[in-house]
Amino acid sequence: MDTRNELKNSKRIVIKIGTSSLTHPNGSLHYARMEQLARVLSDLRNSGKEVVLVSSGAIGVGAERLGCKERPKEVEMKQAAAAVGQAILMQIYEKFFSEYNQVIAQILLTKDVLEDSIKKINAQNTFNTLLKMGVIPIVNENDTVATEELQESIFGDNDTLSAMVAVLIEADLLILLSDIEGLYTQDPRDCPDAVLIDTVPEITDEIENLAGGVGSSLGTGGMITKISAAKIANNNGVNMVIANGENLTNIHRILEGEIVGTLFEKRTQE
Known about the structure:
The chain is of the alpha/beta class.
């Protein structure tokens, strides 16, 4: 069975959606897309899949609510924006998911939780219990206290965090939804002849060199952080797909084995 067909059998799925996919270009929340996301993920749960959503957007949404014209640069302002934005995000997610009778939970993580053995086990148990009960955990970095992450961008707009979560819960598949179709041979914004790479069997130096650029002014993610996430996922037996988050039906298409976005194949254990 080829890997694309293998994705049909994915039982436990982590889906990460970036700030650019959750907001309009002016930074305001894209309610229609958030509602569609709730519908698609609720439908996956109804089909028997276990789903974890890693949602960016707290700092961007909070910054917009606080009247900032772009993503704050000072750590204190990032923390303030995150505190405001996270409450807004969860309020809206609760509204939309409840329309489909889907229970959600909020999990805020910092890097030390995933590196400390005891905290890691506790987090793992929490995820497993929620998934067993049919709940969709919504995960974000705890930006209000994680000054180390804010200053050094360790999680890279939640790309790395989503990969670490996928490994933590032993997911079958990680889907990164972004504002780009996938990994190209060249930057498609500058090169009209750029070709989308549909499958990456192994992350080589050449593949890493293809990554470049940054995300939107309200987000922090770029292709570099997505390649880093792919390495974490693939090295730990998790397939990963980068796809465009503008069309959320891509989630269903990926799980139906269609060639959507760029698939980074997990490494087989020897």
